[in-house]
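Question (not urgent): is this output format expected?
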Amino acid sequence: MRLVSTANLPEDARLARDILSGRDGAPLLRAGVTLSARFIEHLHKAEIQAVWIDDELGRGIDPVPVLSAQTRSEATRALAALHEEARRAVAAGRTLDPEATDDLPDVVDAILQEIEEHDARAVVLADLFGPSAYIFQHSIDMAALGLLVGRRLIVEHGWLDYKGERQDDRHEERLFRLGMGLLLADIGKLALPESILNKPGKLTEEEWEVVKAHPKNGVKLVRDTGAWCPLVQGCVLRHHERWNGSGYPEGKLDTEIHEMARIAAVADVFDAVTSERPYAPAKSPHVGVQTILAGAGTHFDPVICDVFSRRVAPFPPGVEVELTDGRRAIVVSVPEIELDRPVLRVINGADAPFDVALGQDPSIQIAGWNALPAPFAAAA
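Got this back:
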């Protein structure tokens, strides 16, 4: 199967995976359906950006999604209910009800189980949803990516305790707290005016100051819930702090920022760059990877960036890429060692289609990829 933009769907394409609503997790279309003009129009109205299809070009390609449709659907429903309660709390000037986050532990457990099952494989993090679903899906994808990186970080390095010493026990407990913090990281955005939250253009300085208050707003909202603990609070409060002290809300730097929040910072920026937002179109996964690598040691913890670089493929299976000679190709598979030198299926030009392993043919290069990334460009 392969991933195709809904703007470029071939006639009578066959859907390979279920399509879910990004706002309530309900199924919109089931796998196996033939995408008629009416169905494609429905996808456009639902702001679905891309779909997985089965055809000859994608034959034998089996991408692994970072989350199954079932887990994503359950997570979306849980967050939709939480956000509805959060909006009521904001309107009433109160904190969240104590039981407001009661459904989140099951979501974190489900995400952790899937992360453990495909730990050694390159997963697909491509965002399929439009900007109106961003606030839901960003939290879910941020949690999945943060746990993917966090799990590997703990396996390789252990975790830091309050004394700054490395520990090598209670992994599951730490990852669970990290997952809760990631799911709740942006809850404070629900206290922002809609005119700012969904503004399509650049924010004014005054509006930006309002946005920078959302981590503290988030801490206030969740402080009376069952999710509250210092580790979750640190993730919510510090995920926009930066390694060099240039972040917000308090300009903390390097180890002043809790390690969980440093993981969250990487997951947050990668997913933001690769998602459709009201004020910015989604960029390709390789651009997201380059953004993180460019910020290693300045905006992000370099150790976490190193783990990220070995877990997140810039060109995941099933996505289409352009080669430097203008030909197009689909990623067939990704080797564990060289994530940026996948096996490709070249789909146009002489002798196409044919498969080629880039690790064995250095003359073939993917357009737009540079192992030495350009200077860091911040993502709001």
